[in-house]
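Entry type: protein chain
Record version: 2
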Amino acid sequence: MPNTEQEASALPPEQSWDAIHATMDRARSSMYVAGMESIMLLWGAVVALGLLGQYALTILAPGFATATPWFPGPLWGVLTVAGVAASAVLGHRASNENAMGTAARRAGIRVFLFWLTVASAAFVIPAAAGLWTADVEGITIARVAVGIVALGYVLFGIMHRPVIAAVGVGFALVFYLSSHLAGDAAPAISAVGTLVVVALGWLWIRGSNNR
């Protein structure tokens, strides 16, 4: 059998350059989005579970919800901690599989800073617009925050993979349609719709990875 050097020398220069560029593109893509698809779907599921939990406690245990109106804080706190831990595990595994070294760490830092900026904007922009007051309904703040986060998904997807952009659009559509049309059942419907978007995104990613 011909060895690797013989095979490489047998390739025409144009094919050799194409192979090199394809390898570099794959490495760059895997480095910059290592684990991000799974992590972003994970956070969609975390938000859905939070909405379902909050809605279930309000409907099934109204006495508890009335006596402890602060219960959403600990609920979302526990889910956030779990989401952060799961994200760290997914990102670490993906980084070990796809890219190692200083370049990978720097890429991971840039991705982290991107999402830190998006999350900060979801808080800062409503505050700068004067929405964090007793006169403004919580749903108004939520609509602004969701729009900013969904925009982050779309921008990240445009830069790296269309499925992420599609998931962001799906999250926004589910939330806005339910919040405007579903009344008191909006949190539950939004949660179920978000889980459907997560499942469809996962199937899309799995199907494209198997090709």
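Comment: The mean pLDDT is 79.
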